[in-house]
């Protein structure tokens, strides 16, 4: 018999943080760029280049944003914000090596920026540097002990490294911070299952928090089947099928023939 595995191994990494500005109406940005162009002619300051770089970032013109951040840095190489924002733009371009370099320079100028550690951790993850990412998430948490996203991401990496006990501790912390964070229950359930800790209550909570998600029912059914846990897995499979979740159809035919 085919050995079914959990469909969703671990939820995706949380998005890298964006820059610390309020969102602008995109329709306003071209005029704002024109305004800042005129201002730069009179006062080519680092902050003016930085602001124009941000506007370019908002309209997803990342090469021009990088160029302006570079100009800002050339005017004032000691402003950590310039490196931070350039790092974020490099992430958008998937240039993670350059992003890490920018975040490292940012941290060198100000080592109390939790988002810089978080974003550097994210970039390291994209380059398969799991240990470096864990270290940076830990540094981010040291600055902010209630940093939910950092605990979540560190837990995911630890779980992928089969460090399930440590991962469970991270997911525990996420749930303390936000008891309705469904992904933490899902990930904690899977880590528990991997080391033979009963995870039924966590799978139940995923369903309770997300009753319209077919994967919640499907994953709980798979847990019952794979780990030989007592439970009405056929009801879960049928529920997933009722949501037109095609992956569950094969389970229905194999395990719920009656």
UniProtKB/TrEMBL annotation:
It comes from the Bacteria. Keywords: Repeat, TPR repeat. Pfam families: TPR_1, TPR_8. GO terms for cellular component: cell outer membrane. PANTHER family: TETRATRICOPEPTIDE REPEAT PROTEIN 6 (PTHR44858), UDP-N-ACETYLGLUCOSAMINE--PEPTIDE N-ACETYLGLUCOSAMINYLTRANSFERASE SPINDLY-RELATED (PTHR44858:SF1). GO terms for biological process: receptor-mediated virion attachment to host cell. SMART domains: TPR. TPR repeats lie at residues 46-79, 80-113, 114-147, 148-181. SUPFAM superfamilies: TPR-like. This is Tetratricopeptide repeat-containing protein.
